[in-house]
Amino acid sequence: MKKLLLITLFFCNFLNADVAGGVLKKYKSNIFICTGAGNCIDITRALHANFAYVHGIEKDKILVNHSRFAIPAYLQNTNRKFNNYTIYHGDSRQLLPITLNSIKEAATILLNSYLPEIDHPEKENHVLEELEKIKNHHIKRHIILIDYIHLADSKYFGNVSLKSVKKQLLAINPNYKFKFEKGGHLGKEEKAVLVAIP
Question: 76: domain CATH number?
Answer without folding.
Answer: 3.40.50.150
